[in-house]
Write a structure and sequence with these properties.
Structural class: alpha/beta
Strand order of the largest sheet: 21-20-19-18-22-23
CATH class of the largest domain: Alpha Beta
Number of domains: 4
Strand content: 5-15%
Distance between the termini: 19 Å
Radius of gyration: 28 Å
Number of strands: 23
Helix content: 40-55%
Shape: globular
CATH topology of the largest domain: Rossmann fold
Number of helices: 27
């Protein structure tokens, strides 16, 4: 597809675990949250790293196979527990993996002590040790135990990956240790700096650059400090106390770290009008005192960690230092990844050709944009490209800033004299060849997602992967001005997608009015009648939505309640027992089908991914029924086939004109679930629904492959491309290209 630029990534992370190891699955999930930045809600654009799971085997190999060629480097985290050690198939698979992954970063984690029985693995690779494998019985103690082990694992893994990405090698070929520059004011920050310096050895393999230890008496000190703060150390850790902003050298160290400097690129990239800039990663420890002090502009977007209060116990101090070290490592990893990614983007011939064709100048960043560094960046970029009529396309890491952040930065840049034309996009958007801001969209898009571990892990994904992609897709659509429809509940224990969509709508809904328009009309009550998100809830689940929720989400989310067709609300039972009363279960199923029909008729398009294969509620698998209803309404479903679950089964059927009907969508398979059997009152009707599903999808497949006329505005090439397994960024750009074609 020419609409999307495919770029090799600097790194992919794979987490390998046994399918019966629940503790390892929990640990894998916590690693996902860490590397995808799910734990850090303040991160502006959630520029996390690609991470995938592998917990299934095909013979003696992992299934699906690891995509060794999808990234320059691959980090394989192997969670070795008793299940894996005791299973002969997995022992053989580990030996094969050890051979196939030669030259990659392999990080075995000793989840259980039985790890040391695997001599072929232990003898080859030093493991990551995460403490006592014996789990406490008490629930709160067990949660603390899981959290502590996850912290040890993620810290060691993060540090190992950074050292690999930085590629600073010793003479023996091993990666060099990382150094932290401890920036502090002697008047009131020494105790914190020394506490961190003294704790590093027990928490990681990092080393501190501390002036009292690094600067020999009798020699100059300004040049070594400048070099260390600017580029020789891996990260700057700033102890921000009341005195800190008043000290010249403290301010100088921060300035050196946060002032953009050029990355070295290929000569061909620079000739094509591409430049790349980076800063030193930085974390600030914040300890306010009783003095008046002022904030530093350079620290606006820097992650802050509060220091503990005076008199805190030693264990509290140690835990806070551990939190600081973890955040330091994460910041360092993000910048190291995006430095290399910027170089790979600049080296891509197809991307450079697109840049030249559109007559723009590409400026690549390796950090989340903030005002202070952006002012310096734009000045340097215009010095390289002085023509103000030539657009500077500034691409930052991640998936896109929140609407307010994006508008504020553009307002700042446009207010600077001599800046000229500027466009600010994410590097994910950059991989689409259409970079111009989309016109206001009048499209209403239905979204379908979800799924359980058992549905998703066979293809290397998890519910976290679906939620992550779902939110990224929602941001893209909201930024275009689309209205989003979703059938679900705000407190659905099976999925948090509805709540996630609400939060996404808060931050990413597009404001189509110019912030600078002096004649902008005043807000009116009518403005609240067209929210960007509409949540459909079926009986009886809509009863849990409270008046307070409705009020607090006015203007953000509209709620539509759906009853079973043909039954007045007054006739519906007040006490619902779907588990034991088949009539209640049938009414709930009828409500779900009605909800899916109503959403499909209102939407212009539906996008589906993931979804349950077994254990679904209703008369048909939810994703499959939503696709069927969309087609029956005369609209188009975009099925994302690369992310497991029910959608992947549909995709495999649709893309192959000779594929047999999936057994997962048969009445006989559905009857393996006793809950489904219990709610059937007419077998012929129940069977007929599966026949209708088959006929509808078969008819759509014939259209896709040219056997019958195609009736949709988006071409078959775009629809078929989305059926193929692809990475998240490529998939999102294909969806965007499809919407451009539809408009």
């Amino acid at each position: 597809m020419s609409a999307v630029v495919s770029i090799t990534l600097p790194l992919s992370i794979y987490v390998v675990f046994h399918p019966e190891a629940d503790d390892c699955r929990d640990l894998a999930g916590r690693l996902f949250d860490w590397f995808r930045l799910e734990e850090h809600a303040g991160d502006s654009c959630e520029a996390g790293l690609p991470i995938w799971f592998r917990s299934r085997l095909d013979g003696e190999r992992l299934s699906p196979p690891l995509d060794w060629g999808g990234a320059e480097r691959n980090a394989v985290i192997i969670l070795v527990d008793d299940h894996m050690v005791a299973d002969p198939r997995w022992r053989s698979a580990l030996e094969v993996l050890l051979h196939e992954s030669e030259g990659q970063l392999r990080l075995p984690v000793a989840v259980d002590d039985s790890f040391y029985r695997l001599g072929f693995l232990y003898g080859a690779l030093n493991p990551i040790r995460i403490g006592d494998p014996r789990a406490p019985d008490e629930p709160q103690a067990r949660e603390r135990w899981q959290q502590q082990r996850a912290q040890l694992a993620r810290r060691a893994v993060t540090e190992a990956i950074i050292r690999e990405l930085r590629d600073h090698r010793r003479e023996d070929g091993r990666p060099d240790n990382l150094q932290i520059f401890l920036s502090h004011a002697k008047a009131d920050g020494t105790d914190i700096a020394e506490a961190i310096r003294d704790s590093l050895a027990g928490l990681s393999q990092m080393q501190a650059w501390y002036d009292a230890n690094e600067l020999p008496p009798g020699y100059g000190w300004d040049t070594p400090m400048k070099q260390a703060a600017e580029q020789n150390t891996a990260v700057l850790l700033s102890v921000v106390t009341d005195v800190y902003p008043t000290r010249h050298w403290c301010r100088q160290e921060v300035k050196l770290a946060r002032t953009p400097r050029a990355l070295v690129l290929e000569a061909e990239a620079e000739a094509a009008g591409v430049c790349a800039w980076t800063v030193q990663p930085m974390v600030a420890i914040h300890r306010p005192g009783a003095r008046w002090s002022r904030a530093m502009a350079q620290l606006a977007q820097v992650p802050h960690v509060a220091w503990i209060e005076e008199g805190a116990e030693h264990q509290q101090r140690r835990e806070r230092v551990a939190d600081i070290v973890d955040r330091v490592l994460l910041e360092t990893l993000m910048v190291a990844f995006y430095r290399r990614f910027a170089q790979l983007l600049a080296a891509d011939v197809e991307l450079r050709r697109s840049i030249e064709e559109q007559g723009v100048r590409l400026v690549l960043m390796t950090w989340v944009p903030e005002p202070w560094s952006m002012v310096h960046l734009i000045s340097e970029a215009r010095r390289h490209h002085p023509d103000p009529e030539q657009t500077l396309l500034i691409a930052h890491p991640g998936h896109g800033l929140r609407t307010a952040e994006h508008n504020e930065l553009l307002e700042l840049l446009r207010a600077m004299p001599g800046v000229g034309k500027v466009q600010l996009i994410s590097q994910e958007q950059l991989r689409s060849r259409t970079w111009s801001p989309s016109e206001r969209s009048e499209l209403t898009i239905a979204l379908s997602g979800g799924g359980k571990e058992a549905d998703l892990e066979p293809d290397g994904a998890s519910p976290r992967h679906i939620d992550d992609l779902f939110n990224r897709l929602a941001r893209r659509l909201l930024q275009r001005g689309c209205v989003l429809l979703y059938g679900g509940n705000l407190d659905d224990n099976d999925s948090n997608l509805a709540q996630a969509l609400v939060e996404t709508a808060r931050g990413w809904a597009k404001n189509w009015e110019s912030d600078q328009a002096k004649d902008k009309p005043k807000p009116t009550a009518a403005d609240l009648e067209s929210p960007p998100f509409v949540s459909y809830s079926a009986w009886p689940r809509y009863r849990i939505i409270t008046l307070r929720q409705r009020a607090e989400l006015t203007g953000i989310c509209d709620f539509v309640e759906v009853d079973p067709p043909g039954i007045a609300r007054s006739a519906l039972p007040q006490e619902v027992d779907s588990a034991n009363d088949p009539s209640h279960a049938r009414m709930a199923c009828d409500s779900l089908s009605e909800m899916r029909r109503l959403v499909s008729e209102r939407a212009d398009l539906r996008v589906v991914l993931g979804g349950k294969i077994r254990g679904w509620n209703g008369w048909l698998p939810g994703i499959a029924e939503e696709v069927m209803c969309t087609l029956q309404a005369g609209n188009l479903p975009l099925v994302l086939g690369g992310f497991s679950g029910c959608a992947a089964i549909i995709a495999r059927y649709l893309k192959d004109p000779k594929a047999p009907w999936p057994v997962e969508f048969s009445f006989e398979t559905a009857c393996e679930d006793p809950r489904f059997v219990a709610r059937i009152d007419d077998e012929a009707v129940a069977r007929g629904r599966f026949v209708t599903l088959r006929d509808t999808l078969e008819g759509f497949r014939k259209q896709l492959h040219g056997e019958t006329p195609w009736v949709h505005r988006i071409g078959t090439e775009q629809v078929l491309a989305l059926l193929e397994p692809r990475g998240a960024a490529t998939t999102l750009n294909l969806v965007q290209a499809a919407l451009d074609e539809m408009q």
